Amino acid sequence: MTAKRRAKARMNILILGSGGREHALAWKIAASPLTTKLYCAPGNAGIAQDAECVALDIADHKAVIAFCQSAKIDFVVVGPEGPLCAGIADDLEKAGIKVFGPSKWAARLEGSKGFTKDLCKANRIPTAAYERFKGADAAKDYVRRKGAPIVVKADGLAAGKGVVVAETVQEAEAAIDMMFGGALGERAWEIVVEDCMVGEEASFFALCDGETAIALASAQDHKRVFDGDKGPNTGGMGAYSPAPIMTAAMNARVMDEIVMPTVRAMKAMGAPFKGVLFAGLMITKDGPQLIEYNVRFGDPECQVLMLRLMSDLLPALMAARDGQLKNFDLRWYDEAALTVVMAAKGYPGAYKKGSVIEGLDTAGKVEGVEIFHAGTKKENGHILANGGRVLAVSALGKTVAEAQARAYSAVDKIIWPDGFCRRDIGWRAMVRG
Ligand code: AMP
After folding, report:
1. Which residues line ligand 1 (CB under 6 A)?
2. Region for 380 from its dihedrals, namely left if φ exceeds 0, alpha if ψ lies in -120 to 50, beta otherwise
3. pLDDT tens string 108-164
4. What is the atom index within ligand 1 of the atom nearest the CA of 128?
5. In this predicted model, what pLDDT tens digit does every residue of 32-76 receive, in sequence order?
6. Residues 6 or more apart in contact with residue 62 via CB below 8 angstroms
């Protein structure tokens, strides 16, 4: 390519979102030779080091479109599920702006658990046996017939709070009342009740262009807030990649038995899936089973995937949007990556915002370390906590153990008395040696 053509190929990019996932995406996309100017809306203090942050309400699609037009944005990368389920990809494409992320119809894979379960059943995709319910009485009858343990899920988006793994029938009945009663902020209009699966969980990511899918690296996250996987569920307290349980054979099974049948089914129903498909898996004694789909990168899994990705991310995201993944190949570093989330004390319950964080520069100099910001803002030259999950302290290493040692070495250099983190991220990989 001549210098002139290369200059023409360079682009203005906008990332939507403000978490650690978006910081990792911004870090990677900023490094692409194809990027002329990178914006992020609304972004955070860490993202501001890699992109120009724009104070936009990303739920306001008209405002996002107006910004894209005024800043001559060539490509938009959507981080979180909320805007995708609300149809931001459709609205941007209608306005002539190219976007990475599924349409509203395709985003039902995350937006409706009932939709996904029915799709699995119709296409023989392995998942737990289930029923859908629109009322509490029938759901409770079903629970009494099935017995416990049993899992109760609100149909729609619930920011990770819509799932109860009930150990007893009484607990399941209480969850049903809770969901139909409106305790999730909005009254669930439908729930799914499903069998409890037993095994080890893993996160699997595939880039999809509506027809083809290519597997990305695997990862494992840590949902519970305290060491030893204790305490309430969170958005994720840490992750590492690769997940040892995801052998090459297991990856191939997941592609053949779960991802590709889904991609084909979505295309056949006129809702081709373009974007990143994130399968939450239970690796049972009978093989991989789908727990749920998400229609975007996981947070904090994205942080470890971006550290391990050797190839330029941007052309891959564009090929997914353009339906051109067929001959695409991505290269990965052999090293392992691990990320430790630092959260505000009290998270996932009530927590304070505004405490000062120091030592980030020193921590960031530890070999192999990259600190992604999840919820920070800058005020008078200070970095302040501005959310529940605040930092994702990430590292590459020859092994998970080395990545872990580096990440915690950086954590220990961060001075933030109002924050905390788990000290055992990566323990499953350590146990396996
Ligand atoms: P989800 O939001 O669907 O990923 O569920 C949150 C968590 O609940 C999962 O990461 C699992 O730990 C657990 N879970 C969900 N569904 C099941 C199931 N059918 N069997 C066992 N555990 C489940």
Report:
1. 128, 151, 160, 163, 165, 194, 196-197, 201, 223, 280, 291-292
2. left
3. 999 999 999 999 999 999 999 999 999 999 999 999 999 999 999 988 887 666 889
4. 19
5. 999 999 999 999 999 999 999 999 999 999 999 999 999 999 999
6. none
